[in-house]
Design a protein that fits this description.
The chain is mainly α. The protein has 28 helices and 7 strands. Bound molecules: zinc ion.
Length: 717
């Protein structure tokens, strides 16, 4: 759940411009653009991108021409002799950058879902150019003067509520980017942004290198006892690929706790792997300690320049949470309950360790972080033993999709889904569905790309190809990506329950995009703050385990028999197993993120003090229980130093509070029904960011969010 990857395209791309090096290239390539598939809006139904006509060589010229075109569009706004009006300034900005948006959406989506080395190379080249493109439009003084003038006169402009919100958001985005600063501060801000971009790239490269270097070589296959034959051959292949003498290599994944720790019976090897993982990027050539000190210093300076006490104050002001205090309240409510559950789990595990030691007549030992996953797996098998192979036949992909995911959307919102075999995705196995409303009106397209491929990014996510907008007259085109292993030809696609849940989760994002009914694209669908974006998706997960929905889809793929209740009860019970550990290690990381970003410029540690700062922060938060390590230690915490989750790692939990409150609301209002679904749709799912998201929620829920239903859902009470 926390690992699910969900990404928004920066809303900024609809109103961004700046002189940049790419503009010159655009002039050269301008002549070629006539044949470029991005040159004009797609003529396919719903403006589905013309995938068959798109080639790698089309991206770079389309990006260059797109930035150039937006540069001209925005220069025309900025230099317009007419006094600023909502139409000639805010709407003109909303309209600008159409070509750039078209190419950017397809490029980013396909780079993740169906990428190749050339696309990754282009992505790296583009990142600083797009950042500079954004910076220069938002720091354009004459342009901001027009926006500011309108904002000051907003009460007299006679705008409807959504137009007023568009003006407000446009103004806020300029101000947050530094548009109100004097020239000297603007120059410093550009420097800081450039330094941050390069520091963040260095951080990422250090993590990559340190993670590779920390891979653990193993000489004797006997030490790999417990690992599956497939994992052992993967370890042999990894060693061979790097040309090292040892015959096996355990490569590391991003999190502190490594997947191999679940299976390995050798305690000594588990300890080596854990320590290699937890100390990554803390010394040598890929030392991130000085990079962290530098990034934190720059972020603190930037926040200060923009008028905020700390980076967290700056970031959170534009999120649903609003303030560091609100985030602290939420984390403070969940942390002790999660930690108490983790300590109960630790007691069970210690008991098992002691029992096994005494049965083998050897001395017992104290549970360490490298032991947890191994023994937790044994407790899980012991307590919730069910045969995964007995469960999967009840979760056949097509049945789950049609009789579960689509069925719930039909019961709740009246939607229907028809596969359009005449329309094509970017690969043969991408399915295209037309989504229709209860009265038969077409709503948009849903692309389903469910299978794993070598060139697909891991995890699961949703994204959009076209945003819904009445202003542009566009219907949404959205997609879901999963990584389900493709079975041998002719075999059914049978899912585990966590894959079923992921299917519902991603479809919740899709519904948020598909049911959007707003005027402006930049306020539409999933263009909401990070800590609100995971709300519709985590809410939609609940229908996977709702008895009436489950009974509809969980049927044996061969004979149609319903899943026995006793079996499903075991599946559900296993869901909440180890939740104390999972929640605690996530909350610890979220608290660590807050601690870093709630530092003012006066109190920042230097490189030598980074590790001591982290330890003190976790201790102060009450999250320093040794067997439950933080999900990411600072030196490889990519979310907060690279991926834009700075002061925002709490977002999944904030969204989940809203989601579980919504689940409770459904249950106190009679469960699944059109009336309830239509109410949620009217209040939340159709609204995008046309209103402050916190206000949207309160108007739906009838009060502020409440953390209790989340604790119940996760089985932490
Ligand atoms: Zn998600």
């Amino acid at each position: 759940m926390f690992g699910s990857f969900y990404r928004r395209l920066p809303a900024a791309l609809t109103c961004v411009v700046g002189a940049c090096a790419m503009a010159a290239q655009a002039a050269d390539s301008g002549a070629d653009l006539a044949a470029n598939p991005f040159a004009r809006p797609s003529t396919l139904p719903f403006q589905l991108p013309p995938f068959a006509r798109i080639h790698d060589a089309d991206y770079a010229p389309a990006f260059a021409a797109g930035m150039d075109a937006q540069l001209k569009e925005v220069a025309a706004i900025s230099k317009d002799p007419a006094p600023p009006s909502f139409e000639n300034t805010v709407l003109a900005l909303e309209r600008s950058g159409a070509l750039l948006t078209r190419v950017n959406k397809v490029f980013r989506n396909l780079n993740a879902a169906d990428g190749n080395p050339a696309m990754r190379q282009l992505e790296q080249e583009l990142a600083p150019k797009l950042a500079a493109h954004r910076d220069s439009i938002r720091l354009d003084a004459p342009l901001f003067a027009r926006v500011d003038d309108l904002h000051q006169r907003r009460a007299q402009l006679g705008l409807d509520a959504e137009s007023a919100q568009l003006l407000e958001r446009t103004y806020i985005e300029f101000v947050r980017a530094g548009a109100m600063l004097g020239d000297k501060d603007k120059a410093r801000l550009r420097e800081i942004n450039a330094q941050l971009a390069s520091a963040s790239t260095r951080f990422r490269q250090n993590v990559l290198k340190a993670t590779q270097d920390a891979a653990v070589p193993v000489a004797d296959v006997a030490d790999l006892d417990g690992m599956s034959p497939a994992d052992i051959s993967a370890a042999a292949a990894a060693a061979q690929a790097r040309g090292i003498k040892d015959r096996y290599l355990i490569t590391l994944s991003n999190t502190t706790v490594q997947p191999a720790l679940t299976a390995l019976t050798s305690r000594a090897l588990r300890e080596r792997i854990f320590k290699a993982s937890a100390t990554r990027a803390t010394s040598g050539a890929s030392d991130n300690l000085p990079v962290i000190a530098e990034i934190m210093r720059l972020r603190a300076e930037r926040a200060h320049l923009l008028g905020y006490a700390t980076p967290a104050d700056y970031v959170l002001q534009d999120e649903t949470a609003g303030t560091p205090a609100a985030v602290k309240r939420l984390l403070g409510q969940i942390a002790p309950v999660a930690m108490a559950a983790a300590r109960r789990e630790a007691t069970q595990i210690q008991h098992l360790i002691d029992l096994q030691a005494s049965a083998a007549h050897r001395e017992s030992f104290t549970l360490q972080p490298w032991d947890w996953a191994f023994y937790a797996e044994q407790v899980r098998k012991d307590r919730y033993s069910f045969d995964e192979t007995a469960v999967r036949p009840y979760f056949e992909l097509d049945r789950v999709l049609n009789d579960g995911v689509f069925y719930a959307a039909h019961e709740l919102y009246g939607l229907s889904f028809a596969e359009r075999k005449d329309l094509h995705g970017y690969r043969e196995d991408v399915r295209v569905f037309e989504v229709r409303d209860a009265d038969g009106t077409p709503l948009g397209l849903f692309l389903a790309d469910y299978f794993a491929r070598d060139n697909k990014q891991g995890g699961a996510w949703m994204n959009t190809y076209v945003d819904q907008s009445e202003f542009f007259g566009t219907h949404p085109v959205v997609s879901n990506n999963l990584n389900i292993a493709r079975p041998a030809a002719g075999q059914p696609v049978l899912l585990g329950f966590s894959e079923v849940t992921t299917l519902f989760h991603e479809f919740g994002h899709a519904l948020h995009g598909l049911m959007s009914k707003v005027h402006y694209a930049s306020l539409s669908g999933t263009n909401v703050p990070r800590d609100f974006a995971e709300y519709p998706s985590q809410y939609n997960e609940m229908w996977a385990r709702e008895p009436v929905v489950l009974a509809h889809f969980a049927r044996h793929y061969q004979n149609g028999d319903p899943m026995p209740k006793s079996l499903f009860d075991k599946v559900l019970a296993a869901q909440s197993f180890n939740e104390g550990f999972e929640t605690s290690s996530y909350v610890a990381a979220a608290m660590l993120d807050q601690s870093w970003h709630q530092l003012g410029s006066g109190r920042l540690p230097d490189a030598d003090g980074v590790e001591a700062f982290e330890a003190a922060a976790l201790k102060e938060a009450g999250m320093d229980f040794a067997p439950v390590p933080v999900r990411y230690h600072s030196p490889y915490f990519l979310h907060i130093y690279v991926h834009g989750y700075d002061a925002g790692y709490y977002a999944y939990l904030w969204s989940e509070v809203l989601a579980r409150d919504t689940g409770k609301w459904f249950h106190t209002h009679g469960g699944i029904s059109r009336a309830n679904g239509d109410y949620l749709r009217a209040k939340i799912l159709s609204r995008g960011r046309t209103l402050d998201p916190g206000q949207l929620f309160e108007e739906f829920y009838g009060g502020p969010p409440d953390g209790e239903p989340l604790l119940e859902y996760r089985g932490l009470k």
